[in-house]
Structures are given as C-alpha cells and as structure tokens.
Design a protein that fits this description.
The chain is α+β, with helices and mostly antiparallel strands. The protein is built from 14 helices and twelve strands. A six-stranded mixed beta barrel has the order 2-3-10-5-7-6. Strands 8-9 form a two-stranded antiparallel sheet. Helix 12 runs antiparallel to helix 13. The radius of gyration is 32 Å and the shape is elongated.
Amino acid sequence: MNLRHSFKTASKGLTTNRSRSLLTILGIVIGITAIILVMSLGKGAQNLILAQIQGIGSNTIAIIPGRLSNSPSDAASSFLTDSLTASDIDALKKKVNVPSLLRLSPLMFTSEAAFYENELYRATMYGVAPEIGEIMDVGAGEGNFITQDDVRENAAVAVIGSKVKKELFGDEPALGKRIKIKNLTFRVVGVLTQKGQSAFINFDDAIFVPWSTMQRYVLGIKYFHRIIAEADTPNNIDRTANDITLTLRAEHNITDPTKDDFTIQTQVDLADRIKIITDAFTLFLLAVAGISLVVGGVGIMNIMLVSVTERTREIGLRKALGARGKDIMVQFLLESVTLTAVGGIIGIILGSLLSFTISFLIGKIFSFTFAFNFPYSAALIGLFVSTAIGLIFGLYPARQASKKSPIEALRYE
C-alpha cells in the first residue's frame, strides 16, 4: 500500500469519529497556544522594558545606594538606602575626579496627594536638580523648569506633568497657582510638555520639585534615592562609570571593592540584566506549557489504544484482504501524527489571535505601546514538537494494531 492510500485511510478513520478526534487534540491545542502566548507576550514585554530603559539615553549612568545582592552575605548591603549624600554630588562634580562627566542630578521620589481648592490628585513626586531635564530630555512647555536658585533657596516651587495639570486645574491656567502637598504650599512654575512614559517615569503623571526642598520639607532625610549621571560621549561611558566608582570609594573610605555601599548601572548593564530575567521567566513558563503537551501526548496514546481496540474487526478484515502489518502500523501512525499536527496548527492560530488581542488591550488600557510580536521560531518549534509527539506517542498503539492476528481480529466482538 502506498503512502497516499495510507493517508486517505487514516483521514477517513479520523473523520469517522470527529468528536473524539477534536477532544483528543485539545491537549495539544492548549499546549501550543500557551507556548505562542508566552513567547509573544514575553517578547513584547521585553521590548517594552528595553525601550523604556533606552528612553533616558544611552549615555546615562545610574548610581544606586546599596549593593545588588548576589549571595546571602551581600543581602544586608543591598538594603542600604542612605549611602548617597550631597557630599558625593560635590565630589563627582569636580572635573579632576570625573573628567568625562557631562552632568548629573540627585533623584528622590515618593507618592503624594496634591490638592488645589476642592480637587485632589495623587501623583509621583520627584526631587531633582535642573540638569535632570537635559538628561531625560524633558522640558517645560509652559513656564520654567527647576533652576539652580530654586535648589539653593529650598524654594517651594513645582513643575507638574500634563495629566496632573488636567486633573487639578482642568482647562484653567496652572502657572502661578498654588497646590498643597503634605501641608506645604507649592507654587506652580511650569507645566511639562506631554511626553508619556519613559525610563519607568510617567512624566505626564509627575510633580518635580527642587531636591533640597524635597529633602528638607517633604521627606525629612539627608540622602538620595538615586544619582543620575550622564557621560559626555558614548565612548566614555565605561571610563565615566569607573571614575565614579573610584570617587565614591574614596568618599566612603572603601578599600575593599566587595564592601561597596553603592551600585553603578549603565544602560547596557541594566538592559542585559532585564533580558536575563525576562528570558529566564519565559523559559520557566515554557516548561510549564510543555507539561500540557506531554499530557496531551499521553491522552493521544490512550485514545489511539482505545481506537485500536474498537477497530479490531476492521484491522482483521484489512489483513484478511492482504494488508501487511507495516500498512496497519503506518495507517495508525499517520492518524496520530495528523491529529497532533492539526492541533499544533490550531494552537498557533489561536495563540496568535489571543496574543494580538491581549497586546492591543494592554496598549489601550495602560496607554503605552505594547507591540504584538509573532514568534516565528516558537511557531516552527511548536509545529515540530506537536508532530513529534504524535509520532512518539502513536508508535505504541500503531505497533499493537500491526501485531493483531487477522483470524483473532475477525472473531472479536
């Protein structure tokens, strides 16, 4: 019997029991759908995060208090939050210490409720220096940004994002108006141009005040949550990061590099860390999805064994008419492979549709770009794996069918 005839016979066997065939491939469909979803949404999330990191410029260097924990002995150091102070800013600004540093700004943040007359809106409040506007490429569309005089005088002035302005003032002008935050009155001196989300900061939903004012009157602390620095050229990023490290060690009297109470992160470092984390998480989810494929394969083997038993007389009749054991085996193998291949195709289509829908809804609901990514490699691997599962788990039932005696099979009731 040629392969074409075997395929036609297998197709007829599957279409005769359509309901059972559909239920049989359900596990494969769910498994492949899950794989496509995980790969597509995982890639979209990774691209979104990396785009946000790149949004503050490739020359940017973040100085974070504490040391990232790589072992239990480092855990205590990773919780330090008060290791960056104003003296560090002064030391870093000296050209002799960091010649390739272009600019830097301390950064503090907290969530606070802002009041204007009867209106209330909770936004993220940032304490910054004037340089932050150039580092993050954001400026006041109306009025002015924070100035050096504001920082020196601990001025109670605020620059607000476009969404904050809309929520508190509506269509009224905001410049010169006064808002209350933690029983303090701030005069609005600027409204940011609409920028949206960038580098994990939603500028439209932010309130910027001088860092000195934030330290003294809002948070009551003498340290910074971050220091954001910028190298003069992309080629000098590593040099700048190294100079910053040496300067801070000297300021903090650190001679052993393993005792650093700060962490230096460039955009490349951060992007690599994020990529490793998202890749590891995606692999974990793929492993979970792969379990459903194995379960689906076992289900197909069980159903095919039941099918062999139910079609014993058919097998006997075909053997009596001259079909060889090899022909019977090929027929049942083709049925199994066809089932899983069709399940794989359905899973790819369903997974792609669900991924596209979820990506679209995320973009609409959260107001940021979450691009749909079709995982071509996952689709090819999914189709290959589903077909392989049909071949592997269909082999035993097919062998059982091929070994049946035609005389005993014809006597079967």
